[in-house]
Amino acid sequence: MIREALLAGLVALFGAAAVILHGARAAEVSSLNEALVPVTDRSETARAEANRAALRQVLIKISGDRKSVDARPELLEDAGRYVLQYQYRDVTAGETATAATWLWERFDEAAVRELLATAGLPSWQSNRPLVLVWAATEEGGIGTLSVSDGQDPTTLALRQNMERRGLPLAFPQIDPSAAGTPTVADLKQGDLARLQQASAPYGAQELATAVITRAEDGAWRGRFTLLRGEHGATWVAQGPGVEEVVAQGVDQWADALAAPAVAAGSETTTEAVDLQVEGITSSQQVGRVETYLRTVPGVSQVRVRRLEPGLITFRVIAAGGMAVLVQGIGAGQVLQPAAGGVAGRFVLVDMALPPAAAAPGAQPEAKPEAQPEAQPEAQPEAQPEAQPEAQPEAQPEAQPEAQPEAQPEAQPEAQPEAPLEQP
């Protein structure tokens, strides 16, 4: 009972909730840069170790490539530099339970994706397949099915671990009186036809089953299946508790679902490159060039790295690296190679770029940036120096407080005891 209550509190703090969505084949995952890990105490030593564990969790969540991340321990060095916010959270399970302390951290997602790109690892998109899970737990000959609002160990562990791997989760609405509703026996026997028929109204992109049983020796065993067409892939797991078994099973599901993205990433090398642009004389133009670069094929991330008088350096993550990026830029009419043939250096051609929401190359009705050319003294070279380092840091700090507070407010019992801290 203590472990069950602790897990319930953990799920409430983590904000991992199952969803029931009809007709939704995929869902946007907004917490890919967040992690929650246990800590022994609140010392700096414990937090440094937790930083590495949390960064590992985020790297796996964003890339989907668990094996490659674990094969590159150097990625976890200096993990604290990527942390934007952190907060200690306590979970208790009643008067007889020992308090468990967890550390929640939010990382700079752009910097983490850049770290992955530099290491040659993929980034899995945030729009991911919705997984409808039929789960059953059997102990002492009694079997129960997991439901969306269930508080049993299996349901809670599924929520927590699907969140840990960045997978959208849905549970079916169980109506035992309705004809055709799958039973625990159907899940154990692997009745694919019945499960697929009952799952059709939910429109989920992926269908999975989990059967968790307690053996006579007290150990827990699980069988986890991804159903696709007339066939399915099945994995087995075993451990001292439900939580350990479910964690193993969800890792297998996530590895299989991320495999196409991982394979695509290995076929096309993604690199982080520095692109320099001359001729920018206003912060508005900086933003518009940044928006334009995001539309170049193969580009997944863009941020300002350095501001100098008349020269802006952008850090760009692009599939195929600099060669493909230059080719994509050459297809447009916004930037052209700078004189001297310096690789990765361009000149802004269209000083009156269209608004950020417009497509690159669109012809604006007005040219607000034309005035500075007529009156060069009105646009001194010192203007970029007015914001020497502020703008590159603006992106990760844009919403430092709004999002982390949203989840605890939705869960009254999960209110943190301390305010968010900046490392």
Features:
single chain; 423 residues; Double Stranded RNA Binding Domain; 3 domains; 6-stranded mixed β-sheet; 5-stranded mixed β-sheet; 16 strands; 25% strand; disordered N terminus
Structural summary, described in words:
The protein is of the alpha+beta class. It has three domains: 15-28 and 126-267, Ribosome hibernation promotion factor-like (Double Stranded RNA Binding Domain, 2-Layer Sandwich), CATH 3.30.160; 31-123; 270-394, no CATH class. Helices cover 33% and strands 25% of the residues. It contains 13 helices and 16 strands. The protein has helices spanning 2-14, 44-63, 66-70, 109-118, 153-164, 184-189, 192-199, 242-267, 283-294, 321-330, 370-374, 390-394, 402-410; strands at residues 26-28, 34-38, 83-91, 100-107, 127-129, 131-139, 142-145, 169-170, 206-214, 220-228, 231-239, 270-278, 299-308, 311-319, 335-337, 345-348. Strands 6, 7, 8, 9, 10 and 11 form a six-stranded mixed β-sheet that branches. Strand 15 and strand 16 (345-348) form a beta hairpin. Helix 5 (153-164) packs parallel to helix 8 (242-267). The longest helix has 26 residues, at 242-267. It starts with a helix and ends in a 13-residue tail after the last helix.
